[in-house]
Design goal:
The chain is mainly β. The chain has a single domain (about 1-155), classed as SH3 type barrels. It contains 2 helices and 13 strands, in the order H-E-E-E-E-E-E-E-E-E-E-E-E-E-H. The protein has helices at about 1-15, 150-155; strands at about 20-25, 25-30, 40-45, 55, 60-65, 70-85, 85-95, 95-100, 110, 120, 125-130, 130-135, 140-145. Strands 1, 5, 6, 7, 10 and 11 form a 6-stranded antiparallel beta sheet that branches. It has a 4-stranded antiparallel beta sheet with strand order 8-9-13-12, with no helix packed on it. A hairpin with an 8-residue loop joins strand 3 (about 40-45) and strand 4.
Length: about 160
């Protein structure tokens, strides 16, 4: 499916008026830290070939349709598109399904995205980047690493 995305984006670039669609490989996200009240910045990356070592698709938190709703997504592509002199910044992502917190470990568990399914989100709906640990031989769920800083813990304590 990755090749299909690349082909579709290339086709979109060709069909639209020249230079109206601009693909991006990284994005800087600023957020107010809930632990220190200081504005912090993170950079997340999207690359089919990261430093010659294979693909890199970082994960982010997306603001859902209600203020208390968040989504965990793996960003597979991002671009800006200009339509009628207005710029829209879009991400193409694979959305995880939240399973809740594990009763033993306390970590948030996720089911992986459905094969072949991609969702579109506005780039402005990104809250911040997040670490999602892939399944292991002892656990078949993806796990959100929400204890790597106090701010992430505070944001996800009720998830």
């Amino acid at each position: 499916m990755q090749g299909c995305f690349s082909l579709s984006l290339t086709l979109l670039l060709t069909l639209t008026d020249h230079r109206q669609v601009f693909p991006h490989r990284s994005c800087r996200v600023s957020f107010d830290c809930q632990e220190t009240a200081i504005q912090k910045t993170e950079i997340f990356h999207v690359s089919p070939s990261w430093r010659g070592l294979g693909p890199r698709y970082d994960s982010v938190l997306i603001q859902g349709s209600t203020p208390s709703s968040i989504k965990f997504v793996e960003v597979r592509g991002m671009f800006s598109i200009c339509v009628a002199k207005q710029v829209f910044r879009i991400i193409i992502a694979r959305t995880y399904k939240k399973r809740g917190r594990n009763q033993v470990t306390g970590y948030i568990e996720l089911d992986g995205p459905s094969d072949g399914s991609y969702d579109f989100y506005f780039l402005d709906s990104i809250i911040r980047s997040v670490h999602i640990i892939p399944p292991t031989t002892t656990n078949n769920k993806h796990v959100v690493q929400d204890l790597y800083d106090g701010d992430m813990y505070l944001r996800l304590i009720r998830s």
